[in-house]
Amino acid sequence: MIWLGSVFLFTMLIGMPIAFVLGVSALAYFVMTGQTNFLLVLPQRMLAGMDMFVLMAVPLFVLAGSIMDVGGLTRRLIGFANSIVGRFRGGLSLTAVWGCFLFGGVSGSAAADAAAIGTVMVPDMKRQGYDVDYSAGLIAVSSLMAPLVPPSIAMIIYGALSGTSIAQLLIAGLAPGFLLAIFLSVYAVWVARKRGYPKSEPQSVGQILTGFWKAIPVMLLPIIIVVGIRGGIFTATEAAAIAALYALVVATFVYRAMNWRFLKEAFVSTAIITAAIYFLIAIANIAGFIFAIEQLPQKTVAALTSVSDNPYVILLMVNLVLLFMGMFLDTIGVLILTVPALMAIGNTLGMDPVHLGVMVVFNVLVGFVTPPVGLCLFVIAGVTGRPMEKIALKAVPMIGIALIVLALIAIFPQISLFLPTVLGAR
Questions:
Q1: CA–CA dist 10, 167 (Å, integer)
Q2: Can you tell me the distance from the alpha carbon of 135 to that of 261, in angstroms, rounded to the nearest whole number?
Q3: Taking burial as the number of CB atoms within 10 A of a residue's CB, which of 61, 137, 139, 208 is the most buried?
């Protein structure tokens, strides 16, 4: 493990992409430990890692989000959100928060959420006197809700790596996402009152209904996914296919925004994103193979339980390690490296695997807004043209709010398990 860790740290510090970091580290491990005979089976291990039926949901959900994105749905969602909350002090900031929540139910990606909402909202907020760095930070942290609301690529990856029910994970992420939206809304209202940010003119019932009517085809997508899975109409993988077909029908015949150029753009975007995810999963299987050889999950459990047998202390240590890793690695990279050990820890503590999955995914998502590798910070900085460090500084209180929500999720399993239980998914 010394060779694996040393090469891993070196390649990561020189800026190598995480997939190649894992691949080069694994190769160094087998060569330096004299286990070169295992090199013959690595291609088979890589293919086996990708050869899972449930992973078919990934490209299909990505395609659904891409089609909806090029179909111009962002303005419709933001318009509806603004018609509801725009009348309050700091209404545009509330629109940004709930726009991220609604758009997350389509994109399933925090980066896509930050880019789409940031492009539309930040210029409007700037014109109304909002601090640009604060606006960008608010949208960056709000975008963390996207991977918690169905469809969630992060939940699918976790479910595939851990064997946990993806249907239950998708439903379980809704309540934490909603809780984060509530907390961020309270903070946004407080900031707006403190700084005297304006509020929009109240819209009539007719205008609200018009905005709702325009946005309802988009908002139906996550509802179709949850109801279909819960009702046993289709599996999570089949739900992804339904979502992609539904997105194509809505963008083409309802919004009439789809043409061959947009369709090509959606397919190319889907192919690029899917290829990157599948390559990471293939390399992950090699990493998992090494962890099994070295008995890493068992050693990790032994190390943590030797420090304390208090489950809350162990949970705290686990979350601190995940938060630290999230500062340097992306979501899939952290999941790949930690899921085997985390499942062993969860079994030792008697944690529900769905609760553990939601806690882990939410924890890793916080890394999207923490330097030095904060993907959503990079995205929103690119959209606004502002320095990432200034946006990160203004986002600190909101990152603190996300950490409070994380603590609540970790301590109170009912937050994650309430909806799956009520909907009968458990």
A1: 38
A2: 32
A3: 139
Q: Please enumerate in sequence order all residues whose Cβ is within 8 A of that of 139, keeping only pairs 6 or more positions apart, or say none.
A: 96, 100, 114, 117, 118, 121, 122, 380
Is residue 380 within 8 A of residue 114, CB to CB? The reply is yes
- Got the DSSP string for 267-300? HHHHHHHHHHHHHHHHHHHHHHHHHHHHTHHHHH
Residue entry with tokens 């940010």: 197
* Ordered DSSP codes for 100-132: HHHHHHHH--HHHHHHHHHHHHHHHHHHTT--H
CB-CB neighbours of 220 under 10 Å: 14
Distance separating alpha carbons of residues 69 and 120, to the nearest angstrom: 13
Domain boundaries, the chain: 35-422
**Strands (E) located in 131-222:** none
pLDDT digits (tens, 9 = 90+) for 330-376: 677 778 778 878 888 888 888 899 999 999 999 888 888 887 667 78
* Tokens 């930690």 belong to residue: 338
- Tell me which of 289-293, 310-314, 383-387, 391-395 is least confident: 289-293
